[in-house]
Every structure is written in structure tokens, then in C-alpha cells.
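pinned: reference chain
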Amino acid sequence: MENQKEVQRLVQLDANVAGPLFMLSAALLFTLLNLLIKLLGPEYTIWHIGFYRFLGGMIVLLAIFGRHSNLYKGNNIRLLIIRGCTGSVAFICIITAIRLLPVSTALVIFYSFPAFAAIFSFLLYGERIGKLEIACITVVVIGVGVLFDFQLTGGLFGQTMALVGGAFAGLTVTLIKTLRKKNGPVIIYLYFCTMGTFVTFPKFVMHPILPSTPIEWVMILGIILASVMAQLLMNQGFFYCSGWEGGVFMSSEVIFTAIVGIFFLGDPATWRFWTGGLMIFGSVVALNRLKASGEKVSNLKA
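pinned: its C-alpha cells
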């Protein structure tokens, strides 16, 4: 009996560590992706960036994992396609918002997606969250606003696109949690890349742009590889946490983005960075501890 309890404790500990670890690793890679997209020339529109990201990701996955099996043979194909479409819409919306609004405004609105994930989890699966978890989500949103000196500026269309992007991102991470039960992270991302390729191809082919310098080729390849690794880590992370929980962990991306700005782009480390960063980081730690405590109580009752 003692040995069995010890094994259960170790397995639970691994799950509590694995979820945040996968999500934080994904957030770090998404930060690299954001930096590469920012440094890429302005002639590359959202449709060019999206097409290269999605088509490149599809080719990489099929080349590495699809040599001996049919990767499109997943469980619940309809939901995989829907998740691919919702993720593509979220990506297009947030990049469009960034082009129309100050980056800080777009990101603060977009990072409301953990709240949308909680709403969709309740509407689709009846999953309820407690007051303390709601407080964590609220503090994360406020922390992002403090870090980026949030001001509701820019046009209404750009603000709407950021909010729609956040809503679709919340729906997407909720669906990933369901799909992850019977599908591996590779299949989930492959369908995302496939649907994204279909969505961006018409606009890309109307005005195609090919990389013309070695630097551009390196940056395009970096966007593809960073996207693949980040998405696979994130999809795997949803095996250990729900959609809204993963969204809170992923909010650490804004801290990494601010750090990159400070160390590589010359941005000042103001009180906003320290205050907002601590609010986000504290919420992530608190949520992880609440989750661990809740599961410990459930195990004791069982």
C-alpha cells in the first residue's frame, strides 16, 4: 500500500511539473517566433508569413514523422479540422491587429484568451473553475496591461480583430485539450498547418514573394522551425492541463517578449516590467500550486 501511494505521488508530481514546463518552453519559442516575424521585412504580409509558416510546418512534419505512416489518420477528424480552422483564424486576427494597433494594445486584448478558454470549457464541457482560479486569470490580464502600459488606442477594427483573435485562441486551446486525449501533438499540429495553408494560399499566390537573400532564408526557416517546436510542446502540454490553465501558463510569453526587448532591442526595464512581470509570474505559480493542492485533496478523498 505504501509503495502504491508513493508511485501515485511521483506520477502526480511529474504531471504537475510537466504541464508548466511544456507550456513555458513553448512560450519561449513563441517569443523567438515573434522576434523573427518582427525582424522580417515589411514586404512580407500576414499572408506570406502565414503561408510559409503553415506550408513549411506541414512539410517538416511529413518529412520527419510521416515516412512510415499516414499522419492524417487521426481520431475525430472533424474536430481536428475545426481546430485547424479556429487556430488559423486566431493567427490571422492577432497578426492583423498587430499591424493596425500598437503592439502593446493588441497583445493586451489578445491575452484575454485564458478567460475565453474558461468560458468555452464551461459551455462545451461543463467544466467549472473556482474563484481563486478566476482571480489568477484576472491578475494575468491586469499584469499584461501593466507591463505593456495598456491604452485603448488605435482603430475599432484593429481592437475588434485582437478580441476576435483572443476568442478563437481560447476556443482553440479548449479543443486541443479534448483532441490530446486520443491524438498525438504531431497530428494536431499537422491539421493546423494543413488548414492554415489552405486559408493563406489564395492571398499568397496573388502576390507571391520568395526569400531573396541568405538572411531572409534563415529567418523563414527559423519561423518554420520555431513554430513547429513551439506548437508541439504546447499541444503536449495540454495533456497535463486544461485549456484555460494552459493559457495562463502561456501568458509568460509576454514576459519573455519584454525581456527580449530589454536585452536585444534596447527597451528600458521600467517599473511596469517588474510589476507586470511579477503579477503574471505570481499568477502562474499560484495556479500551479492550486492545481497541485486540488489534485492532492482529490486523491486523499479517493
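why pinned: The mean pLDDT is 80. The chain is about 80% helix and 0% strand.
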